[in-house]
Amino acid sequence: MSLRSKTLSSFKNLMRTCQIVFREDQLALEASRQRIRREFEKAKCLTDERQIQERIKIADDAEAILRTTVVQARLKEDGRYEVRLRKDMPLRDNIPFKL
User: Fold this and answer.
1) Is there a contact between 67 and 59 (Cβ–Cβ < 8 Å)?
2) Mind listing the pLDDT tens digit for each residue in 17-37?
């Protein structure tokens, strides 16, 4: 796969993940889209293969972090938060803090 193809794939995966993670939160969705576009535009003029691969890795890592750690929560009328977990969200054991 060429660097151009890898870059485009990373861009699309990151945008797709943002759509899923920030669903129904237009402010967060638009902010993430603008940031992704801005970062990819900045890297557009890179010619060094190593720098391009580093940027692709950063984009792939960011996508994985968003997909596996970000959840949406909504404040309900009773003052509690309702968390929407996605099916692909890995659940981990909750370890209580001890002194």
Assistant:
1) no
2) 999 999 889 999 999 999 999
